Amino acid sequence: MKRSILIAAAIISIQGSVLAQNTAKVNEVISAEQAFNRLVERKGIKDAFLAVADPEGIVFRPNVIKITDFYNSIDRQPGSLTWQPKFARISAAGDLAFSAGPYIYQNGKDDTDKVFGDYVSVWRAGQDGKLKLLIDLGIQHPEPEKEEVPDFKEPDTARHGGSSKDPFSSKAIIMNTDKVFNHELTVSVLASYKEFLSPEGRYYFPGFEPISGTDKIMQFIDNEGININAKTLDAGRSLSGDLAYSYGTARIRKGDIVSDYNYVRIWEIDASHRWNILLEVLSAVEQQ
User: Fold this and answer.
1) Distance separating alpha carbons of residues 143 and 216, to the nearest angstrom
2) Which tens digit of pLDDT belongs to each residue from 21-31?
């Protein structure tokens, strides 16, 4: 399927009700993350995740499992976990958001046992309008050499895709876009990222600090000799049609080494109603 067909489908789908005047603010998801962090400090990792989880929220352990199912099945987790949102967006409707940033996990009092990395969290508004954790995924990497520069932007109402009351149509658009991108990856990894990446895109790969910008991301992929075969599992889109997510599995070949990964992608719509990848995180599947 040509990308132009996807764009046409997107344009058709946005014929709906007008976006509400009270556009959401990105601080809503930042505040949700900060409150979640304080909850971890007070109640511990397990109870905090259970408290903020969306009923359909998932983690990867290593396969997809509901947050509630996973944390109800384990004992209280030891150690401390802290993080800082550094990259965040929210849909104009306020029903979908994400944040990403560095985390530190420490299981003990000795600084030598600290684990560093970056998290990516997708949030969805519940029936009460409060954001709940829908997807949580992260990567590990060495201690950062420098602090990440915050990137928080308010929804661009000039770009929103128009509201849609049909969740099945909204989901199908993102599912198809994700599948097309995965197919294109089998033809040419670099050409695919060049076509689909947002100029503001970020790339999260295990063992490395987040990479920002199309040129740097493509240079990294080229230098690492990455070949990707990926499969879409699920996706979703905001009611305002400006922000979306997808996730799935990937098998990546680097030279003679082949490894399995989970991926999450954040998609944003541009002024021409093209869906671009704003963020992609790939987390290695640990062998059991």
Assistant:
1) 20
2) 478 999 999 99
